[in-house]
## 1
Amino acid sequence: MKLGPMRIGTPDALVIGLAAFACAAASLSAHQTVVVQPGNRQPSAQQPPAPQPPPTGAAAARPPVPRSPQVDQAAHDRGRALWAIDCVGCHGAQARGSDTGPNIIRSETVNFDRSAPQAGSVLGPFLKAGHPTQSKKPSASFTDAEIADLANFLRARVNDTMRGSAIFTVGDIVTGDAKAGASYFNGAGGCAGCHTASDRSLAGIATRIGTPVDLQQRFLFPNTGRAGRGGRGRGGAPPGGPAGAPAPAAPAVDRNAITVAIAAPNSAPLSGVLVEESDFYVTLRDADGTVHTVRRGPGTRVTKTNPLQAHIDLLDRITDAQIHDVVAYLETLK
């Protein structure tokens, strides 16, 4: 087809430009997978995000809890004033309990709220359902702003207990019952299902990890300090070298890395270490180091396996006493 002269910005130019863009988009949409060879930093083709929702199915595993979520200091200060009026008499100045009320630092409501994107999104429904206050103010009458202020105050109290806190001090944590800890480890805790004499053995763990506080930290947050998925940042492919240079070897696979298996219609199954994921794409690195990016779409099944998921799920149900008992038991494994 022959086109006559036209000026940029005219209606004719706009129509033809949109038509060309539509053709290009249709061509790209046929490619479901982008493959990146080791050392090649850019995919061989680029795709616009497709507005496909993530697949539905079984409930997703609970994500790891962030160690120190950000606290809005102004909201925290307002929350501290509310806490002094309505909560301190039962739960204490640091939310660690008193003679008349429980320690809520590790309560489910406080910790789920702490890990939520919006401060107060878990605490709010709890208070709206009704909870006693020392001022006799109905907890259901707290405004959303007041709930967010209280949530920021509680986030800071939990953060204060973390090792990165400026006020954290190491106390004597080997206060539990080692026999009770062994019973929990081999029974209700489910620990012995993964940690056996031949696989992931903990023999000598108290010697390898020299201090009880570090041992407790590794028990509760076993991936602390590791490089992350795949053993290199978030598990991404190694950066590419100069043009023509041999591709660097893929990093060694961390046995604690999250793995993923993908089954997509009309495509060969893929599996490997999870590099990155979003609502639109999943990126993995297979056994030979090749990185694949797969677009989520109808019929695509993505199955993730986190070897440390049992530790994450354990935080939902283990009590403080059980933590101390297990640490006391682990301290006997010299």
## 2
Amino acid sequence: MTESSYTRVPVVRRQLRDFIVAAAVAIAIASAAFVGVRNRDLAARQLDLATRSADAAAELRDPLPTVHAALVSEPKLSVKHPYLRRRLIREGARTRVLGADRDVAHAEDKLFYDAANRFQRDGAFAELVPDGTGRAIVAKQAKEGVAIAITAPAAPEPYPFLVMIGVLGLGASVAAAGALVGRRAQRIGMAAGIAALAVPALLWQSWFAAFAILALGGAVALAQGAGLTDRLMSGATRHRVALGFLSPAAVAMAILVAAPFFIGIAIGFYDHHQGTWSFVGLHNFTDILSGGGHSLDDPLNFWFILGVTVLWTVANIALHVSVGVALALVLSRKWLRGKGMFRMLLILPWAIPNYITALMWKGMFQGEYGAVNSLLHAVGLSDVSWFGSWATAFSANVITNTWLGFPFMMVVALGALETIPKELYEAASVDGATAWQRFRHITLPHLRPALGPAVALGSIWTFNMFNVIFLVSGGKPGDSTNILVTDAYRWAFERGDKYGMAAAEGTIIFLILLLWTVFGTRVVRSKEDA
């Protein structure tokens, strides 16, 4: 081996080191793309088989050999048991009572019965059976009832290990060759080596994954040219002990926080319909921000819900701060006896789980037997239908959340009051300052640095306070007291499994809170500097 070859060995090692790190990310992207394409192709193939077989059953033709298709009749009252309804199932030339005779009943009779009931309720549908077997079920109208077809279980395509090993070896060879040539060819070899891992994604027609891998290759090549990869690796080597302690927490954060966060953002660009996903781009976002065809005073309009959410947040934070600071001022008085007991009692609403508190307050706001109406009746006032109008339902929610939120502000204010020097109050009293002047010029300025972050954090909590809205008013009346987070929940679970719309609204909520956090931090800093 020549001397120049020896001098190139460290360069090749660094090149392969950077390639391995980037290749791990690229393979993860390609694998995710393969799983998505594989599942989509399996669903399309199974749904096509089920649809063709359902059409054949509706026309009284023989279905495909691997598909169980039949006609299911309308429900009829049982002669022997009038309170029961039964359905007939026709499989070819044979007709029998669905699920009645154990000797001839098929293992899929329960699926046929449930599908017929769902068709009667919701109309035609086609989807994968949610049991992980890969079976598809289709129900559609026929002249003699409902045509239902269920495919046989199907396994997805196996992972292409040999293909991935082949492109990985090709990419490593290209990257190493570039390092041997040196200079600009080293960066070109790195970009080309990573780009080789995009070939499977291109063959699977996963354009987004292919673009992400190509962008990764270009980014690594640029970072390598700027010397960033060498600096990162040298820093990791120097601080390997510290990184070893941090890695478990970093892995947990990546799995529990980062992965769901980015997956949620990605889902916002897709539409979910009857078990299938389709890319719709920004359609979900534009549909939400445009109001979805609803007028501005419609409770289903995004801007109406945003207005309710902002009003909800402002009202709650104002009450939290006011009540919390007032109680903190009282608890900080020297003449008050039993401070420890009062502090414990006032912190209890914060210690109790908020869903339990929400259910308790909902019971107290109920009808004529609720504790709140009983109290009003005892003092000679008429009962209030708390969930009969927007104003009363909104007030019930605010009262409940105020009970939950004031202890936090009280604790923060108590801590801030303990840091104020007593000499300031004594000097102000000697100068003739009134109680209001002492509060305005001494207490309030010392409370602001502590209350600023507390208000920002409390705003985020209140903005996303799902439990109170969902459990107390439930959005009544007519979904008019919903806030953004409960509206996103309803998109996902009460409006036809619109997971894409729910994820898009969740992304919008995140952006709103991000802007509020940045703006609030700057305001607090400017006031502290002043």
## 3
Amino acid sequence: MQRKQNRIVVARYIKYICELLEIHNMQTLTNRSKLVDRKPMTALERIYLWNILKGMMITFRHIFKKKATINYPEQKRSFSAVFRGLQILNRDEEGRERCTACGLCAVACPAEAITMEGAERLPTEEHLYREEKYAAKYEINMLRCIFCGLCEEACPKDAIYLSQTFAQANYSREGFIYKKEDLLIPHPKENPEAYAKALGERKKISK
């Protein structure tokens, strides 16, 4: 009952405002509104030939202009230097993982898309991990990620950055949860070409 009364009050208020606008003959700020022409259509307008011809003229005019589309994936657009794409877990020059599982990227993420588990490095794993602590598990939920780049800014070890690569499409929700193996950059010594491609135009930073 109360909702019905509120609707009646709102309807009366809107009607009152409309009456005021008609009385004072107020105009819109942009003056873009136009009165609809209600005159009867001519015989030419009824068969819509003129409107079809106008549409075809616009189409043929674009044939001679530069195309805005590209033949993807054969052709790819060049990305800006500040483009934020798929996250990459970085390595140092010797191929050791930089991530120390400090959790700053997960805390900085506004979408709470990052989860990780830390582990202690063994004496025989010094060639695999740069610090005494490393990320044994690292996952990013791409369905939550908004590619804001805050994880990259929060990382003190330059262990994560947003590359110039699109996130791949998938057919299931589980496929959008990227694990450490999916995010880790290729080894710079074992696969230098793939490492340079993943690095892109990003400058090397040693911390």
## 4
Amino acid sequence: MASCTDRQLGRRHLEQLERYERYWWNEDDEDDYHMAMSRPFSALIFTLLSQNTSSANTRRAYRGLRTAFDVTPAALLAADEATIAAAIRPGGLHHVKAGRIKELAAFVLDEYDGDLGWTYDLPRETVRRRLLAMPGIGPKTADVLLSHIHGQREAFVVDTHMFRIAFRLGLVEHGTSYARVQRCLTAFFPWDVIPSGQRDRVVQLFWFLARHTCSARNPRCPECPLADICDQRLE
């Protein structure tokens, strides 16, 4: 099994990732995402809503929530849990997520008086430790916020699609921890040859490849631009 560092994306691979631009979100979806990510608390809520559902359903759930409420700790703590659940129903697991939203809102109010501005000011690892201490916040959710602040090079986000492609490429073994998958995928990108303003975009294109070509069922290996460096490509 390959180590984290003995292979990387090449320049040719980076060029071929451009074909996944066609999967990029539309303008309304982009606006929803940037609105949610513009404040630390709403970014956490948006990412919490993304758990165990699709990107499209995440956006539907977030739109429902922000239409019904101000997405602030005070407003969501004061809101009726059943009403929150109804607002986020398109995202699935709405009763469970409504409870988590209430718990998170209460925690942020109790511990930080509703202010998460420190996420921009404190060292990244300090912020990560504090985020992971919050109810309902796991490594992926924490890294979504951290990557928005610091970039994917410093806080690579690992979801189901990233786990899968890391294993198939031979970067990690089954059962590998989130932290190791994150390290191996971070090492897989030749950051120094990617313009700094394009790094997060390139990671997103790679995610589209993982989702649409390296799919869980019936991966389309013959069309994959990474087939030449993949351990599990299907002929």
